[in-house]
């Protein structure tokens, strides 16, 4: 039986390339694997992302730009949970992700579960729950 996995797939409203470049710069062990853009043939606007594959913390993600012209927002109903390895890492990610975004929960202890925890919607609307476990 083939190994199966679930890959997060995000649809941006014309900002997929900027988001992917931001995430791969901010998160460790991240890279852009492939990015195909629309040309004049469409159906998306020329230069927007038709399909991209990238990694964040060695986990694969996919993304596209919305080709139908209707803005579809991200919501806090779905978020990515990131388990951080150190106080420095969670503070760095918190500072980077909240810039031009929205803080839903300030970086603070959340005893008895977390030494530090924060929930942020970044500048692209993606929600991140950052956690540094106790111990």
Automatic annotation (TrEMBL):
Superkingdom of the organism of origin: Bacteria
Pfam family, one: 3-dmu-9_3-mt
Xref: InterPro entries: 3_dmu_93_MTrfase (IPR009725), PhnB-like (IPR028973)
The PhnB-like domain, residue ranges: 4-130
CDD domains the UniProt entry points to: PhnB_like
Protein name: VOC family protein
Organism encoding this protein: Macrococcus psychrotolerans
């Amino acid at each position: 039986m083939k190994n199966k996995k679930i890959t997060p797939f995000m649809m941006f409203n014309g900002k997929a390339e900027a988001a992917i470049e931001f995430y791969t710069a901010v998160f460790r062990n991240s890279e852009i694997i492939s990015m195909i853009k629309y040309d004049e043939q469409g159906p998306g606007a020329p230069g927007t992302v038709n399909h991209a594959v990238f990694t964040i913390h060695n986990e694969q993600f996919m993304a596209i730009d919305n080709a139908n012209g209707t803005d579809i927002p991200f919501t806090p109903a779905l978020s990515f949970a990131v388990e951080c390895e150190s106080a420095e890492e969670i503070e760095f990610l918190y500072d980077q992700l909240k810039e031009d975004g929205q803080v839903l929960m300030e970086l603070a202890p959340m005893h008895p579960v977390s030494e530090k925890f924060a929930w942020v919607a970044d500048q692209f609307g993606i929600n991140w729950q950052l956690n540094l476990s106790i111990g």
